[in-house]
Amino acid sequence: MPELPEVETIVQQLNKHIVGKRIQSAQVLEQKRVDKSIEKAVPSTVVRAWRRAKAIIIELEKKKYLLVRLGMTGHFHYAPKPESLGKDEKFAGVKFYLQDGSVLSYTDIRKFGSVRVLNEARLQKELAQFGPEPLGKEFTATKFKEMLAKKPKANIKVTLMDQNFIAGIGNIYAQEALYHAGIDPKRKIGTLKVPEIQKLHQAIQQVLRQSIAHNGTTVKNYVHIEGSGGFQKYLTVYEKTHCPQKHLITKVRMGGRGTYYCSRCQK
After folding, report:
1. Can you say how many angstroms the Cα of residue 145 is from the centroid of all Cα atoms in its chain?
2. What pLDDT, in 10s, does the model give residues 36-49?
3. Pick the catalytic residue: 51, 54, 95, 157?
């Protein structure tokens, strides 16, 4: 499932390709996951796109918003002309036809994602459920320590993936950050010492920023508007057999997800 770096990459590309352009019409092809009312929300000019947690928000004129959740396989295609769209278009949930002749489509092979039209009040209610942004100014090491102090008996890896606790971190980046911080993912939060929390805070931000710089991680299905991610080349433990120190990787299941870690580097 796309996490913060993947979603941020797509948002940056949406801003590049469609912001300021006018959507002339929309064609909803999958009504179970895409609001049919999108067709009535256009024509409208795209004001901006941004990210909150793993969600994409596309703002239209008159305070109308498209809230996009990518699910496991959702992604956008953009083409100068409709005939230039890719082979996955049979899985398209909605197509946006822009005034300049270009087209943006949202496709979702496994159909776990969604596209909804919301007003400002409903959008704010949806976004309020998420925890702080790990790359936001408010997410300081002190703030992180205070957040963790409220959950001493909780598991650290599962907690990092809790979107109500902190926004945007999923299975890949929780594992990678814990490796760089030298923390065993099985540990309870109450066992973490202050230096370990500070190191984990730094590792979270470092891993996320590095992944964004490489357009996210492609290990299975993720693609962005302009191609595939590149951070998979820099993963240390996720789906690896050995860590960078050549130690054998251990795999366990935590919170219903496979978890890779090094029992020698992570304590």
Report:
1. 24
2. 999 999 999 999 99
3. 54
